[in-house]
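Q: What would this chain look like folded?
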Amino acid sequence: MQTTIDNLRARLERAFLGIGAPTEQAIATAEMCLDAELREHFSHGVRLVRNIATEYRTGASRRRELAITSETPVSAIVDGGYNLSPYVHRIAADLAAEKADTTGIGIASVHSAGVSGALGYLVERIAARGFIAIAFNSTPLVVVAPGTTVPTLGTNPLAMAVPREDDDPLVLDMSTSSIAFNKVMRARSLNTELPAGVALDVHGEVTRDPHAAVDAQGRGRLLPFGGHRGYGLSLMLELIVSGFITGRTGATKRGDVIHEPDDFGALYLAIDPAILGPAENSEAVECLIAEITAAGGRLPGENSRAIREERILSGVVELDAEAGAVLAEHTP
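A: My prediction, written as structure tokens:
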């Protein structure tokens, strides 16, 4: 299915307006999903509409005004009020950057929201203002610790971005699980196999069947990336973001609702490079990047950025069957 970027943006906005979201929230969320789709980050593009809509409905009875419940010159706690979740996360990322603009460092945490959308989009937004950006996110429990079969961790993505003087920020966006859960759900929709060694079935056996990797309650059994190192990183993020921000871990967090908005705590950090060292140190950043690329090395995110730029120039985007079905479901 081929469509124009403008048409896709309009349909995404209609989808979020259709579930009752305010206009400003719908526009911001549509932009994030569109950006992911243009980069071919399909797990966080059009298909994410389903997740966001589910969480928005789940939070309906608890919905309230978005609020800053605690604030210092360098920090803020953002109560998302179960509003449209990517919009809430964008507010928090912007708030961290605003504080860094004044104090040199800013940090914002998020609770009572839902899925963040692509973290890379948010750290790039911070870095575009000249700050080093770091973001951590928690998710529902769909990852098992090595040697176990009970999900006790989220996919717990993290993202970092480094500002550059004469180019777009350099962005790393990664999950600490061997595969993003949305990619498993996408494989189920498209009836394709999973990569080897990324998921277990209910019996604890490694499987490439995306249907076997998800139980009857819709909960996955994914493996951490990188063996014990990835597990350790995922565990620390779970403790920091779920433990300290939402107060929901382990059995308390693992419930019957896989898209519970409370499962998506987040932390955003913005740092002015000027508080780390002299301004001329930015030359060292550019020298290393130039050295890597001159040797034929690839930089994180460069392929997806090139794809996005190509599509923006053409004004056209090709949607697969799953994306077409999601749009038909939410914008009939």
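The mean pLDDT is 95.
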